[in-house]
Amino acid sequence: MATSFNPKSLVESAWKIIPFFQSRDIHATVLLYTKELGFTIGSEEPHFASLFAGPKAASNIYFSLCREESEFRASSAMIALGAEQHEALYAGLLARARDAGTGSGLSAEPTETFEIVQEIRDEEWGFRQFSIKDRDGNLITFFRFLEGSNGEELWAGN
């Protein structure tokens, strides 16, 4: 008698997901994500980088170098933040875009490193979010829940 295969019970053990993005310049990508967005370097090689943020590297992105323009594909990811941190990150990025003379990035040229492509707003599905594109066109949407936990217990030492 064959045993029952239940993939749901197996993937319930998942504890992390790591999106894999492409980059046209690994070092420039690392500078953007560390200096402008606050990520930490896990590793940086000429053809690969691992960048992370949050407790236990909860938000981790891998980047691989893509030299062939015809093979380049931009990717996207969503990153959940605490409520106060979400608002402060948006305000800081908006100020940097304005300082660079780009306004919000929505109706002007992007900065050399990022462009705000969706202003902060509340969505009907219960998120408050904004989106940026990096220099390669990869889309990062930062969000927080309008109701419920926004991870504050992770920073409170609980």
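the 2nd protein, sequnce then structure:
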Amino acid sequence: MAQWLIFGLLAAVSASFVTIFTKLGIHHLTPTLATSVRAMIMAVFLVIVSATKGDFGHLKELVTYKKDFGFLILAGISGALSWLFLNIALKTGKTWQVAPIDKLSVVMTVIVSILIFQEEITLKGIIGVILIAAGSLFVALA
């Protein structure tokens, strides 16, 4: 099995638990506080992982590659907004309906990757994206 597929599946499993654990842990908190706590825990965890791997020796590259750093800032803001909106939706909605709508990000990512990165997609890929969109909507609006 290809390495990208293994890590992609691990990401999907991890993301699933994020949604489940958030739903379990958000009962008595505001979505904003829950998102902040989760972000702090993730930051501490990832700093420990980066420190263990010796990644902080590459911090000077942030200055060298300003454009990359700018995009990482935008990615961080987008991720924070995504988590916040997900937490707001989970606070008031049913997990089984919120999760598929959140996964419409897959469809949006494919469309943007075709438009911006000029990535090619096969007919099977197009059909798959349409099925993801339709499936997400069918489940969420059931």
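Residues 66-92 form the longest helix (27 residues). The chain has a mean pLDDT of 94.
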